[in-house]
Amino acid sequence: MDLGLKGKKAIVCASSKGLGKGCAMALAQEGVDLVINSRSADMLEATAEEIRKATGVTVTPVACDVTTGEGRAKVLAACPNPDILVNNAGGPPPGDFRDWDRDDWIKALDANMLTPIFLIKATVDGMIERKFGRVVNITSGAVKAPIDILGLSNGARAGLTGFIAGLSRKTVRHNVTINNLLPGAFDTDRLHANMQASANKTGADVGELTKQRAAGIPAGRFGTPDEFGHACAFLCSAHSGFITGQNLLPDGGAFPGTM
User: Fold this and answer.
1) 3-class state of residue 33 by DSSP
2) What is the pTM of this model?
3) Which residues are 179's β-sheet partners?
4) Are 164 and 178 in contact (CB under 8 A)?
5) Whole-Å CA distances, 52 to 5, 30, 36, 81, 103
């Protein structure tokens, strides 16, 4: 399927590796020119070159912390009028809520709620004027099924989800959609770090714990960043203009509910 995106411009945040990289590559395969971002300049440049060689699109790497005002300004300077915005930022660390103070909560909110909101604020009016825009927020499967050790993430991402539920109904009449992708267990550094934290907490062997986690998913495995990226690309496509305010949960069937 031709997704109708050739020649479009996208900002993909936190995209030097993992799910963000999967999204960037999938969009590039559809002919989208990219501004990609991460805090690691070397890794980011390597990813940019990999995408260029694989797809031939223009890829502009911007090394910065997008969760800061200065970082967002750098990304927006490189692409002030994106057609597509993929919001993504690393989640806060796991732990016990008794150990978190106000600064921990503010940092989580800045990264996983306020940064996406500010980037949408900076770009959505231009999308409305051009009568095309696609925003995808990478959140977490924990929005639907909270994970006990990820309380900071649960709270911040749930706040973003509520905000998007309202805004997305206002922009869709202008062919500007806003949706959330809620990754379940994908084979990323983040997943393995969380598995290690669980192993440290329980004293279990991390390798065995990881195997058990994969076996407990109906699909019998973890997802891949490529699979995630293609789901993102479809939500960004010219064919998805009637899909907005949704929370798509690619998780291999792990969530046991009907909605």
Assistant:
1) strand
2) 0.94
3) 136
4) yes
5) 17, 13, 12, 21, 39
